[in-house]
Amino acid sequence: MPLISPKSAPETRRSDHTDTYHGEIIADPYRWLEDAGSAETKAFVDAQNELTRTVLDALPEREQLRSRLTELWDYARRGGVWQEGGKYFQMRNSGLQSQFVLYVMDSPADEGRILLDPNSFSDDGTVSLGELAISQDGSKLAYSLSQGGSDWRDWRVRDIVSGHDLPDTVSDSKFSGAGWLPDGNSFLYGRYDRPPEGQQLSSANLNQRLYRHRIGSEQAEDELILERPDQPEWGFGGMVSEDGHYLIVNVWKGTARQNLIWVRPLEERGPFTEVVADFEASYQVIGNDGPVFYFLTDDAAPMGRLISHHLETGERREIVAESQHRLLEVLMVEGGFVLHTLADASSRLSVVDRQGQNAQPVTLPGLGTVGSLSGHTDQSEVFLVFTSFLSPAASYQLNTENGELTALWSPDLSADLSGYEVRQEFAESQDGTKVPMFIVSQSNVVLDGSNPALLYGYGGFDISLTPSFEVSRLAWLEAGGVLAVANLRGGGEYGESWHQAGMKANKQNVFDDFAACARHLAQRGYTSPQHLGIEGGSNGGLLVGATLTQHPELIGAAVGHVGVMDMLRFQKFTIGWAWVSDYGSSDNAEDFAVLRAYSPLHNLMQRAYPPTLLTTGDHDDRVVPAHSYKFAAELQHVQQGGAPILLRVQTRAGHGAGKPTKLVIEEKADVYAFLLGALR
């Protein structure tokens, strides 16, 4: 790794700006970097990118990695199959296409025809497909577009038979799907007021409203279904029950799983029945038999259970009780339910009847992850994909009557995976908690501490890290690297209690768990601190920043993607207020003390830090790029060693979703070349 002294980093202006939080004065010398559109900020980004390219382009393995990643990536991939109105749909990529393409088929294994090709949206691939929804009669497709990775969406409608778009355009939508009404002539969606000019990527998103758009009409004529100006943080997701009789509204507030459920007959305009009237637990609508609705909930069951609720009588019954494993997902099918559970972060499937009895386990291809589970309440066919660390996603069809799982399509990967193996080990955290971790390596790995290793984590928002195949990681493994994926508290692997053990005042547990995993890898001989890199994105970027400031002695390099680095101001921008449920807020004195103690930006000091690469996108309106800008500037300012501190800013890119394949390959080549250069 070419060494760069702090003096070689760009000179970045430090202001005397300060804020006072609950009596404590906090300096914020790079506040001006929050203005993403200013000439000075743009000059800062240009200077940082120039430095980063100077270092990364000089790495001898960078071009070799880019070439190898391109070869590995060039294989056909398919997502899960789903069915609507007698037609079948699937997302596919022939290999190096910038975006996945939507196909429509007459049968699940049919070759079908292209219905929507997002690669035609723009020449550079930066206009991507957001959400999509097929009408229940299979006649129309509603799909949304994202510009440069932004969370803002514009909706379009395509006639499925002709393959042509209708004139409809719906704008200013964000954090919303489309809920079709049974006749296929209108859909529900959520939208916000348009932000002031120049503030589209930074202003707070509040006061979402639920609308009904009728096909063939102008957006100005859309019917307002629901708004709550007295509750600006509430958001609304509208859907229609599969039998077409009920309008169901999921009321959400931030990223917390706790929600409200409101139901009323579809064509009525009266008040809703508040099936769930307070934000005390998570409720997910599974389906209904007339007035009897089924919910997956963690109410009085941190690992999850399935219950029924009668709309007219209010009677509730427990269908599937809480067990020792996380009940992650339930699918209602003809005569029963498919249950998807997690056992030590790996998927299990079973089928039960409508009374929750006569459980029939489904034999999966191995230890891995089930995804894209889809089906209908009146059908026995279910579709899914299965993947693991060493098996690319393959699509399957499940017959729920006999539990038989049939492969529909498997990818043809050119790389040989027979020389690798996966282990699951448990590290002991500071308070004695056992923290699981998947370790992937060559089968003949020598445990002498000399291997470059990469520890990946997230640890937040009830999100589970389960085994999945990422083709880019093969380049790391082929280079002799060890990969470790940690299942930290704050995630959802062991239910709501595991989540709560890593949120708000308990957030330090997440960082302690990650540090314990780092120590475990060194103690077992997989690697040693000077050969260990850490990586994470978004909330995982916060994890990297906190680990870098708390335990730089445990690591040899750090890579943080689109990280939340300023824990005192995150709630001021776009949807940042929604993360208060997991983090707390600096507006509260008790929360401030917790946040101040670990906020990466505010815990840097004059010392030598290991080589660090920070990445972000200039159109990221989820975690605004100012987090990475300010952290990089401060880290360069305090760096006392010779290790490089690099900031990589991708233009016309957002939080990560929809990024074109070519740009993903370029970024992965940079990351792995940086890590190999730093850790070998």
Automatic annotation (TrEMBL):
Q: Name one GO cellular component term.
A: cytosol
Task: Indicate, by first and last residue, each region the UniProt record lists as having compositional bias (Basic and acidic residues).
Answer: 10-20
Boundaries of every Peptidase S9A N-terminal domain copy: 10-407
Q: Does the keyword Hydrolase apply?
A: yes
Question: Which leading EC class covers this enzyme?
Answer: hydrolase
* GO biological process terms, semicolon-separated: proteolysis
Cross-referenced PANTHER family = PROLYL ENDOPEPTIDASE
* Family from the record: Belongs to the peptidase S9A family.
The protein's name: prolyl oligopeptidase
Source organism (scientific name): Deinococcus detaillensis
